[in-house]
Write a structure and sequence with these properties.
five-stranded mixed sheet; about 375 residues; three-stranded antiparallel sheet
């Protein structure tokens, strides 16, 4: 199920990686924040030649050139190319045209005769159109986004050679996009990355290519996943919230934050770090060289900070800082954009379709498989 989180937060405990190698699992909120914020816990060393495999097949997330897998100055140089683009103020300036895209998608939805698969009609095209507008992508590229995403975020069920081939094609696209924006810059995000990278200097081209690829697929996959999972939960289990969601945008903002906090994107056990030296976390000594899995979603259920009934009032402000977007130097740069898309996407849908409801039982919903994120492959609704 899309919102099942197993286990209880507790002190760091021994765990295993997919290949059976030892690791440590950290799950209490304060401990997870410690691991994600302490510079002694790093990403780059996870990809040393003798490091255990974090994935059974190649994927984008475990590419050593990805910004998320850099540390220190290398990470800061890459992050500087995007930092100004994703500030809350910058994202707020995008709200008018994002709202236009939301309304355009809703206009299209209105022309369908129910029942309708709302994934195909709304939760997928909305974030694809937003990231395409932001990055200046054409229709031909849009048609390939899901194919690239499914392989970039493969859960290991794809053939390894197939994933390598698709990711090579994807990287070729990223390199070509950078080259075109250097020759013909515009007002899109990739052009601003190129300009910032030239000003910063010293950034390897392979890292810029992976940055572009990460933006292309990460910029729509997580929003699509959250929209689909949130709609399934709201329509299937909390239909009493639908009217308020559509009538009150400030209430929609609080609900979107709670959905991000409570509904996992997938079943990933935790974001990994490598301990560069001995570090005590939550009263337990983590030896140097250990791989540490920081379970953000289990930490988001920590009763020390969050109440035992986190789903009781979906419009209540969070009691503390959530970890849906991580913490520390790798805090997700796209957090404010994701919040805005989820809030507007849910609020305007509820306002335009106050009678929206599921047209199939929840236990018959078909799930998207093969990737590390989990959401409905199809979700049939009516009104």
């Amino acid at each position: 199920m899309h919102r099942v989180v197993t286990g209880e937060p507790g002190p760091p405990v021994p765990a295993r990686l997919p290949d059976g190698s030892p690791a440590w699992l950290v799950s209490r909120h304060r401990d997870v924040r410690h691991v994600l914020s302490d510079a002694r816990f790093r990403r780059s060393q996870l990809y040393a030649p003798d490091a255990p495999a974090l994935s059974a097949v190649p994927d984008l997330v475990n590419n050593p050139d990805l910004m998320f897998n850099q540390d220190g100055e290398d990470h800061l140089r890459l992050r500087a190319t995007l930092r100004r683009a994703f500030t809350p103020r910058a994202v707020a300036r995008w709200q008018p045209w994002i709202t236009e895209i939301v309304e355009q998608c809703l206009d299209s939805l209105e022309h369908h005769d129910p029942p309708v698969d709302i994934v195909a009609a709304y939760t997928l095209p909305l974030p694809v159109m937003v990231i395409s507008r932001l990055m200046g992508l054409d229709d031909e590229v849009r048609s390939k986004l899901r194919h690239w995403s499914e392989h970039a975020f493969s859960d290991g069920s794809h053939d390894g050679q197939e994933v390598e081939s698709v990711l090579a094609e994807f990287a070729e696209f990223g390199a070509g996009l950078l080259s075109r924006r250097r020759r013909e810059p515009g007002d899109d995000l990739i052009s601003s990355v190129v300009r910032a990278a030239d000003e910063e200097g010293g950034i390897p081209e392979a890292q810029l290519v992976q940055l572009v690829c990460g933006l292309v697929v990460g910029g729509h996959d997580s929003t699509m996943t959250m929209l689909g999972n949130s709609l399934l939960y709201l329509l299937g289990e909390r239909p009493e919230c639908w009217a308020r969601l559509g009538a009150d945008e400030s209430a929609a903002e609080a609900l979107a934050e709670r959905m991000l906090h409570l509904v996992p994107l997938g079943d990933d056990r935790g974001t990994a770090r490598h301990a560069a030296e001995d570090v005590e976390v939550g009263g337990v000594l983590i030896p140097a060289g250990s791989v540490v899995l920081a379970d953000c979603f289990l930490a988001n259920r920590d009763p020390e900070l969050f109440p035992a009934g986190p789903f009781d009032d979906l419009f209540a402000p969070l009691e503390g800082p959530g970890l849906a977007f991580g913490a520390g130097p790798h805090y997700c740069l796209g957090a404010w954009l994701a919040r805005l898309e989820l809030r507007l996407g849910l609020h305007r849908l509820a306002a335009r379709f106050p009678g929206l409801r599921l047209a199939e039982p929840m236990d018959e919903v078909s799930w998207r498989l093969g990737t590390t994120s989990r959401s409905p492959m199809r979700l049939t609704v009516t009104w």
